[in-house]
Amino acid sequence: MTARVMTVAFAGIDTIPVDVQVQMASGLPAFSVVGLPDKAVSEARERVRSALSAMGLALPPKRITINLAPADLLKEGSHFDLPIALGLLAEMDVIGHEDIANFVVLGELGLDGSITGVGGILPAAMQASGLDRGIICPADNGAEALWAGDLEILAPSRLTGLINHFKGTQILSRPCAPKVSSSPLSLPDLRDIKGQESAKRALEIAAAGGHNLLMSGPPGSGKSMLAARLPGLLPELNARQALETTVIHSVSGMLPEGGLIRTRPFRQPHHSASMPALVGGGHRVRPGEISLAHHGVLFLDELPEFQRNVLDALRQPLETGQVSVARANAHVTYPARVQLVAAMNPCRCGYLGDNDLSCTRAPRCGEDYQARLSGPLLDRFDIQIDVPAVTPEELDLPASGETTQVVRKRILAARETQSLRYKNDNILTNAEADGEVLQKAAVLDEDGRALLQDATRQMKLSARGYHRVLRVARTIADLAGMDNVKRGHIAEALGYRHMAYRR
Ligand SMILES: Nc1ncnc2c1ncn2[C@@H]1O[C@H](COP(=O)(O)OP(=O)(O)OP(=O)(O)O)[C@@H](O)[C@H]1O
Ligand SMILES: [Mg+2]
């Protein structure tokens, strides 16, 4: 008889059911795994053999074949250990075939029979639930499977615990949901930033409409400080967004304590990041930073220091909201709808425009430095602002600006207006509005239209630039609680596109 255990293989965030077939036949003793296993799956043999012998079980001297079907799909990862071990145990009559018939099984084995955590439990549990099955997964990931719904979950920490459960001598209880701490996260407050009123205003607009933001200014003017205050200004993820974001983090094996991700991700990769690290790819086509920031913020500090080809690889996902990584035999797609925030100095020395501090190469050094950013990338920033140095007088004043809480209230109100407006369009923010939806949402008065048309001609705005100005103006009007977009809103939005114009 052949024992069969169901598990899954991953293609991005999608799961593909894999049938693990275990057969013990008479013949010369052998143990082989077939069905396109990668190195980690092939090594499962050694881990499984040791885990069984740690329980005092030796593999029978037979010809053991493990087939992973479908045979033409590449199997990657260490989560095949547990299904292989359970298939062997069923063939050895330690557990019943029917015990494991209604489960999807994932888990890595230690040599001592312990079951260690693996990535991707949440999408696997969702797949299991769709197939009307339960899931057997490591104890470390048990809480993660809870978010997939009402399915049966067995989350043992050791192989012996699972065998005892099937024998009825020690019942495994359903994992508990992780405790959500009731105290608010200690995020830095906007009030700490002295001066920089216009930069704070731009940050508020960016947060309200989900717009991409680029800050340029001399060293130590507070750009990184401003960006760090953005997560505190953003609303929590809704249920659908939370699940989508959590699935990506689950696949990358980075989910903290199995909890659902409720706060918006804020990812700030270092500027030495490689292409696979930022957009995804590499050995097992892991999601990149842009996907880990899905529904949140991707913050690129010191933007021109990033490799040029890496930055340009962001252009397409920024428009489409997803990233496709090509492999030899398949394309893997990850969602990547992010708000891009970036900070940069205006030149290499950092003090371009300051006659006392700028270097002798000004303005050439500024032109060279800014030329590292391609025009199309710059075009994707809806809001581009200068963050000038703060004066000693401003620094000397006590902190008196608005707190994050006050500004956040206005942002939440503007977001509410947007989600009501777009409720039939399947989007939530002005930044996502496009084509006819945007045209209908941003109705201009005569003055506003004339100004936008004049400015488009004079500033040589691209069609994308035109629409981005319109979106930002819509957000400014939303923050002001106005139904129509007026000339003043357009004027302010145009003021935020001066960098692309300057080049
Ligand atoms: N507006 C400000 N109000 C209060 N403190 C500030 C302000 N700007 C800068 N600082 C102080 O300067 C430090 C550095 O600020 P920050 O890292 O944000 O600068 P930056 O603009 O990102 O500089 P760089 O271009 O070198 O990265 C902060 O930790 C803070 O102590
Ligand atoms: Mg900085």
Architecture overview:
The strands form 5 sheets. Strands 11-12-15-10-16 form a 5-stranded parallel beta sheet. A 4-stranded mixed beta sheet has the order 1-2-4-3. It has helices spanning 39-42, 44-54, 81-91, 121-130, 142-145, 159-167, 197-209, 223-228, 230-233, 239-251, 275-279, 289-292, 308-312, 315-320, 364-370, 375-379, 392-396, 404-421, 435-441, 446-458, 463-479, 487-495, 498-502; strands spanning 2-11, 14-25, 30-34, 63-69, 103-105, 108-109, 115-116, 134-136, 153-154, 213-216, 266-267, 297-300, 322-326, 331-335, 339-344, 383-386. Helix 5 (142-145) links the parallel strand 8 (134-136) and strand 9. The model has no long low-confidence stretch (mean pLDDT 90). The protein is elongated. The protein has 23 helices and 16 strands. It is of the alpha/beta class and 503 residues long. Helix 7 packs across helix 21. It has 3 domains: 2-167, Ribosomal Protein S5, domain 2 (2-Layer Sandwich), CATH 3.30.230; 190-402, Rossmann fold (3-Layer(aba) Sandwich), CATH 3.40.50; 433-503, Helicase, Ruva Protein, domain 3, CATH 1.10.8. The longest helix is centred in the C-terminal third of the chain and has 18 residues, at 404-421. The structure holds adenosine-5'-triphosphate and magnesium ion (MG). Magnesium ion binds next to helix 8.
